[in-house]
Amino acid sequence: MDARAIIAGLRDKRTPSKEQLDWFAAGLADGTVSDAQAGAFAMAALLNGLGDIGRVGLTLAMRDSGDVMEWRMDAPVLDKHSTGGVGDCVSLVLAPALAACGAYVPMISGRGLGHTGGTLDKLEAIPGYRCNLDEAQFRRVVGDVGCAIVSASSDVAPADKRLYAIRDVTATVESIDLITASILSKKLAAGLEGLVLDVKVGSGAFMKSVGDARALARALVTTANAAGCATSAVISDMNQPLAASLGNALEVGEVMRVLTDGAVGPMAELSAALGGVVLNNAGLAEDIEAGVKMIIDSISSGQAAEKFGQMVAAQGGPKRFVEDWRRFLPEATVISEVYAPRDGFVGDINGEALGLCVVGLGGGRQVEGDKIEPSVGLSDVLPLGTRVRRGDTVLRIHAAREDAARRAEAQVLNAIGITDSAPEIPPLIYERIT
Fold first, then answer.
1. Known catalytic membership, residue 119
2. CA dihedral 310, 315, 320, 321 (to 10 degrees)
């Protein structure tokens, strides 16, 4: 086959065949397809679309460009994926909760991207936690504990890794077809039987409108189901941080408050909602409401916390992390408060700006290879609608240095709007898509 012919066909709005997509993905993986050809393909896909059939074909071709795991378990193999937000650490709650409900959860996760935090970066705030397990270790932890959260090996969907890097420098990141194939090729390579997708919308998400989020959710759900993985999606709000903290160690602390202290709030509510959907789809719950109750019960009984502790220990972390987590998590050397400049209400929160503030503090990467400072971030962020008086604390900055804290304060004051009247509070969950 010829890459030029495939690109020309897509340019002229002809959907590539399965055989062409298989060949192109293999060429991305082994270098037969050049960077220029990959960029041209991505631009043609962005402008003309691949259609449902082409999107499924590209997803499966990229999945099959590397290793695809198979599980022979006595219960369903399930997972969850979020399109990214701020203060979103649901994966760390949901993976052990699903395991406590009888599922196996081989979660392959990523690092921070842009203004959003990465699941792996959060877990690596726990001393000794290892994300880069080999396949034998990964299988052992999943089999023994019920869940593991790891990084993808270089052998998982290598075609996607190559195309993703090229999309980033060719202004083609926004293609729904390519986003869908990128997300699902990696998830399906984990050998899943069921998946629930958390598609974020709002100021702290990549999708700013409900319409755009709905289009992405539908593309993901139809493609994953066509590929043989029972999948549903939830569109959830990201117009304010999901948890009251942003930053790696701070977010792990939020997770532990849910798992061990019974903390309630949006993160616990969304974890239960997502878990209820995937447990029902997998046949472990008779309906979504029963699945929600199973997740809530696994947390309130302490079983989810026990699974989390077993996972942390199995992946190199402290054996008694759950019992004494405050002692193990790193703390910033500088903690300062940001005060409301006037009376009013917390009327709007620019989640993307807050996320970038955390990156600027050292809690994320500005360029690949940057070292992350796990202790920095923002905590005690007041939610939308909170009434404040001038001088009230609206959040706390955790920084490595005084000058970094001062710079962050200016960013935060621009990101949080104090209004005269209370804002309309958006729903946590907009809709489910099956």
1. yes
2. -100
**Euclidean distance between the first and the last CA atom of the chain, given in angstroms as a whole number:** 37
pLDDT per residue as tens digits for the range 218-255: 999 999 999 999 999 999 999 999 999 999 999 999 99
Per-residue pLDDT tens for 307-318? 999 999 999 999
Residue in the structure block whose two tokens are 């990101």:
415
| Catalytic option among 187, 214, 396, 398 | 187
Report the distance separating Cα 10 and Cα 42, nearest Å.
10
How far is residue 99's CA from residue 79's CA, in Å, rounded to a whole number?
10
In whole angstroms, how far apart are CA 285 and each of 295, 309, 311?
A: 10, 25, 24
Annotation marks residue 30 as catalytic: no
Known catalytic membership, residue 161? no
Please report the pLDDT score of residue 115 as a whole number.
61
| 3-state DSSP assignment of residue 105 | strand
Question: Whole-angstrom Cα distance, residue 330 to residue 353?
Answer: 24
Q: Is the pLDDT of residue 272 over 90?
A: yes
Quick one: what percent of the chain has pLDDT higher than 70?
97
Domains of the chain: 3-63 (1.20.970.10), 78-314 (3.40.1030.10), 331-419 (3.90.1170.30)
**Selected catalytic residue, list 119, 151, 170, 379:** 119
Sequence length of the chain is: 434
Does 229 or 113 have the greater pLDDT score? 229
At 295 the three-state DSSP class reads helix
Contacts of 336 (CB under 8 A, 6+ apart): 396, 397, 399, 405, 409
261 as an active site residue: the answer is no
167 catalytically annotated:
yes
Residue type, 218: R
Q: Is 371 known to be catalytic?
A: no
